Amino acid sequence: MNSSRNHSGKCILLILILIPLLASCEGPPGTDANATCTQCHNSGSIIVSITEQWRASVHASGENTDRNGTACAMCHTSEGFRECISGSKTVTNAPVSNPSSIGCRTCHRIHESYDTSDWEIRAKNPVHLMISGETLNQGKGNICANCHQPRIPDPLPVLNGNSVTIRSAYWGPHHSTQASIIKGSGGIALSGSEVYSNSSHSELTNGCVTCHMASATGNKSGGHTMKISYESHGAKTYNFAGCKGCHNNTTELTSLVEAVRIETDSLLAQLAEKLREHNILNASNQINVSSGSPLELTSDQAGALLNYLLVKEDRSGGVHNYRYTRALLKNSIGKL
């Protein structure tokens, strides 16, 4: 009997000793989850404002997320961009399943650290420009340049080089050639009356972000809309908030921008006409080639065609780098 009581007493004592140990097995209390979340998700309106701006952007439309193959996914899907940037490559390992549009997680480290460092830009390093082999370093704008740059045409014309055979109507620098235009590279520097030089935009510390992500006008321009202009009461209105560091008269700047665009559009039209005269472009200004009828071009002709496509796909009307754009177009016209 005494033995049984002693055994029971020992069991009870052991349980009493283990209770506090078991109760604290999870270790010391961590940071309150609510405190972590409210660093970003709080009564402020910044996330709401940025989200509204982004929804009005071209990035948000997701029109090209179906381009999710290995060679295209980097720039047409959020998942592909993150994979390529983290691995310092331009091609994904496999087509992206369930692709999403370019959004918050594409450019920022959202919900990786669960504090304000989640706002950090995902890619800050200087960018290798594929078509020229040069490096662009424009701070916060570097992340944009990873995709907003031309691809390498196959074959690539060489200045004063051999003739070029083009077999595809899709030959050229692809779309979004902005980074190379701003750098003043990527085109074929045909000789002519114009000297190749760069406008001051090529020296902006933060490149694209300076002008395209300046103080927002609602969800119409600036901020994460990344738009420079918008329509207001039936008229085109510019957001020059990011330009004031160099241009303090918005009326004069509006006139300057419009003049540059008119001149560039005119030069593009003149070059297109020359290319049509040589049967390099068809009546729709598309490359005049078919699988059974390739184009045989001299290096000058191929260079002029590449320059035309490079400026056309920049879509700034010469504003990104007026001097370089003007030289490419005028010297190409002169060569034809």
Query: What radius of gyration results from the CA coordinates?
Result: 28 Å
Low-confidence segments, given as residue ranges, are: none
> Count the strands?
6
Largest sheet: 2 strands, antiparallel
Number of DSSP helices? 13
Spatial separation of the terminal alpha carbons: 115 Å
Structural class: mainly alpha
> Helicity level, as a percent range?
25-40%
Mean pLDDT: 92
| Widest sheet, order of strands | 1-2
What brief labels describe this structure?
single chain; 336 residues; two-stranded antiparallel sheet; two-stranded antiparallel ribbon; 13 helices; 6 strands; 5% strand; elongated
Summarize the SSE layout with pairings:
Layout lengths: L1 H22 L9 H5 L8 H10 L2 H4 L11 H4 L1 H10 L16 H4 L19 E2 L6 E2 L5 H4 L18 E3 L11 H6 L23 H6 L16 E4 L2 E4 L11 H28 L17 E3 L1 H16 L7 H14 L1
Antiparallel strand pairs: 1-2, 3-6, 4-5
Task: Characterize the structure shown.
Among the domains are: about 50-120, no CATH class; about 150-210 and about 240-335, no CATH class. The chain starts with a helix and ends with a helix. About 40% of the residues lie in helices and about 5% in strands. It is mainly alpha-helical and about 325 residues long. The protein contains 13 helices and six strands.
